[in-house]
Amino acid sequence: MIGMTKNILFYVFLFFLISSCDNGLDKITPPAERSAEAISNLRDDLEEPANGWVLNYQPTPESGIFYLLLKFNDDGTVRIQSDVPGDEDYFYDQTIPYRIDTRLSLELIFETYAVLHYLFEQNASTFGAEFEFYYLEKDGDNLMFASKSDNLGENTVITLEPASADAADVFSRELPENLFAYDTISSLFVGPMQHISLTEENLSIFWSINLDERNISVSSVGEGLSVSEVATINNTKILNHQTGYGFSDGKLVLSDPLNFSFGGENITISEMSLNSYSETGPPMCTDNPIATPVYSGSVSGLGNTIMYKTLFDVKGMDFQPQSESPYSINVFYVADSTGISISQRGSIEELFPTANWFLFNYGFDDDNPSDPLDPQPAYAVGLERSTDAGDRTILREFVPTITVNNTVSVVPTDNYWPNDITAEEISNLEIVVDEIFGDDGGIIHALNYTIESQPDLTIFTLYNACNNYEFLLVQ
Amino acid sequence: MIDSMKNLFYIIKLGGYLGSCLLFGAVILVVTSCFEEDKLDVPVGDVEEPTTALDKYIDSNFTEEYGIAIRYKYVDNFVNPGQRVAPPKLEVVRPMLDLVDEYWIDVYEDVDGGEQYFRRYVPGELVFLGGLIYNGDGTVTLGTADAGARITFTDVNSIDFDDDEWLLRQLHTVYHEFAHIVHQNDKLPPAFEEIAAAGYSSAGSWFNLTDEEALMRGFVSPYATSSPNEDFAETIAFYMAEADFFEDYITLEEDCTTAACEDRNEGRVLILEKLNAIKEHYLKSTGVDLDDLRASVQSRL
pTM score > 0.90 for this model? Predict the structure, then answer.
């Protein structure tokens, strides 16, 4: 009896085992089918919103916002609208193919060139924008993705939000288009600089703006509305505020609002309406009086604003005569109007191929000259280069001068140093100096330049607005 | 496959202003290499059913006609991990196909025996990439090919048939890589590597050579010194694409008064000897006369 019961239990167990195995096998879907189903589901989700998706795209934590509208179509294409100017409005409205792949997870790939790829290519493809994304999850009505090719730990999570019917109304494309006019006549190192005049507050804010990556570095605030007023009153404050920005509904919107106190007043700027654009501002170079852009606008609570182009830098006013030693820089950091080092391709490379240092004597007191009868001139510009006899310095004197605001007038003379300088050296140095400063000399703007890895090093970039030449100098 | 794609084609070494985006002293180095062990008869691979007019054109004129798959939609394994490049604009694909037609396929069809040879050995894939390939180490790859199985055109978004530099770069790419197919199938000309044997550079050191130094050694480019195979492919590519090939690399400078001039002329003698060996070998092994090919290419430029 016990044996029969055991047998019954065994067969019952076997029945359930087999039954359960059958059911399990039935439930297992082949991988290819599961992939196809996952792709289909995501495609359905992407195509679902009637007005497509809004993407406020911030490629990196430091960058600003790019406003995109995406409408996925059932033919495998996606229409992308953006507020990114360039290439004759190429990026405003495009339809390109997209693909959903499955590998370790679902991937969304924008297959041919559009605005995302344009952003990807910025700064020699190091900016951090993406056009390949991993699908993360559905969060309510939103779809979440993560960038695929960012470096480990730097992945950017993006959120597609269903767009409203009027989502395209907030495009403010004329703003970034107009702001690009501020990019001309700008330092290679510092970028376009703007002077925001708060007319009712009698304040001026100075910042540099990166128009490609959409971030702003606010340098200072000063009392007064014009540069000359700010410099004369000399009541300024360094701010050092970094923020991304974007555009929405006719406004420049700061990602991190600017907050500071000045003259007993707390100032907050989170967005700025930009209303009226003209090219009526003061020229940057007196020899070449091209009008510069001006944007009139307002800030809520602070009243009217005027956004000028400027080369004024409060920190640049610290570029002062230095008696103890010349200013100098590796000759590599002397650039022509196109940003090419003239030690690599240009007059220094051709005339002084072994030059190592670019020298700028600004009030230098040569109290220990190698030749007591031939001290270096206090105001001079020149080069140190390697020769068979050792390092040799040659200089061309310029008229003694002072820093006015953050500008220095460099007017070369016909005096050269040292006494034994050859005719060929004089001729070649004359060519180099005239090329950098202009035939009759000119005014250069001193701008503070900070290297992130060496914040304690005081570096100025000296920018010639008349010919776009530029060189760094280390204090 | 990607691991074997170690072929660097053209490289720009970029200087930088403190690591910024400024391009100081850009130096273009013409470079080629291929992975010789790879098989050439790689199948075309998966091809989606064409739906757009462009894809139907490709299917009809390239895939069905020659067995070539045209890859213009981005796939990340077109480049190595760490390399960054964007895909092409949709509207440049058709003009690029026209370029491939006019400056490569039609050239072979123009000459005796060319079409037969082309159809037999044409690579299975042509990849179009929109920009330059940034390598993350300050260099930029301008074009790659994968042992005759795949030829990758870069910077196609800059397409401009009136831009000689751009057009020559594309022609160099395609003729260099196709030249490898010849020696992969029919070996190098006899004793080819002995003609300028002393001039080949040690591994990885071709970077340090200037164009003039390469010429003095008897090579058309620094990268040609990296191996006899690359020398063979570079010489053919330069011969096909460069209008001034004879002036620059063959014709001796007269009235030399400097050692450098004499060295350049000695290099030119070696290049001529190699070119003659290549032409004879090419005709014998492929049935195609390189002079006819060059004439056909040059007539289109």
Answer: no
